[in-house]
């Protein structure tokens, strides 16, 4: 029917929580600490649409990102204006790739990374 949510395990919960809420502007639905797992679980939304579960676990292994490895390649967000979003993220201290044009759709997009080097794409609606 549709994708319900995407789960992300982060290496530093405080850093990733701040990134996803303050830098990307996702809204917190709920945050819980699960004592038995020594793990936080943060449910995040774009507007009121639930999209991401952010988890912390003790000592997770690093995610191989370069060279590209099997598994999730990147997470993509739709935006109205790619140039404005890129400028906004650069102003917040992120390194962003140059804007490119999708050769099949003609739409603009660019990539940046979250604190654990998960590639994030911002794609023109």
From TrEMBL:
The keyword Metal-binding applies. Residues 2-125 form the VOC domain. Pfam families: Glyoxalase. One of its GO terms (molecular function) is metal ion binding. Coiled coil: none annotated. PROSITE patterns: VOC. Keywords: Metal-binding. PANTHER family: FOSFOMYCIN RESISTANCE PROTEIN FOSX, LYASE, PUTATIVE-RELATED-RELATED. This is VOC domain-containing protein. It comes from Chryseobacterium luteum.
